[in-house]
Amino acid sequence: xxxxxxxxxxxxxxxxxxxxxxxxxxxxxxxxxxxxxxxxxxxxxxxxxxxxxxxxxxxxxxxxxxxxxxxxxxxxxxxxxxxxxxxxxxxxxxxxxxxxxxxxxxxxxxxxxxxxxxxxxxxxxxxxxxxxxxxxxxxxxxxxxxxxxxxxxxxxxxxxxxxxxxxxxxxxxxxxxxxxxxxxxxxxxxxxxxxxxxx
Length: 199
Hints:
By secondary structure, this protein is mainly α. The protein contains 10 helices and no strands. The longest helix has 30 residues, at 73-102. One of its GO terms (biological process) is DNA-templated transcription initiation.
C-alpha cells in the first residue's frame, strides 16, 4: 500500500515504472506547484505554464518504463520544463514572424534566425567558466539542477544569504558577458536561454 505522504520517492519511481497510477498521481502532486512556479518564471504566462505542466507529466507517463530511481526526478522535470519552454518560445517567435509577414510589415525580421543557439551555448558556457568555484557550484545547483535554497544550504553547508549573494554575483557576471559578446540578443530571453542551454 502506497502512503501519499510517507512513501520515499525512489519507491514511487519503482512503482511508476510498473505503471502504478497512484504513484504517478503522488509524484504529480508533490511537484506540480514547484514546477508551475518554475514554468511561470520561464514563460511569463499562467496559461502556457499550465499547458506545459500537463505536457511534462504526460511525457513522464509515456516514458515511465525508462525512468531510473537512482536518477534525480526533480532534475529531469526541470530539464523538461526548460526544454519545453524554449520550444514554446521558438514557436511563438515563428508565429509572430508569420503574422508580421502576412501583414507585409517592412520591419519584419526573422528573430529566431538572429539567435545562433550553438554560439549562444558556447558563450553561456564561457560565462559560467568565469565564475568563482563557489558561484559556479551554487549557480549550477540552483539554476540547472533546480535545487532549492534549503537543499543547497544542506549540501554545501552555507547560509541562505550566502547562496543569494553567490547567485546575484553569478547572474550579474553572466549577463554582462552575454551583453558584451551577444549584443543583439534580446534581454527578455536571456533567463530562458541560460536555463535551457547551460546543461
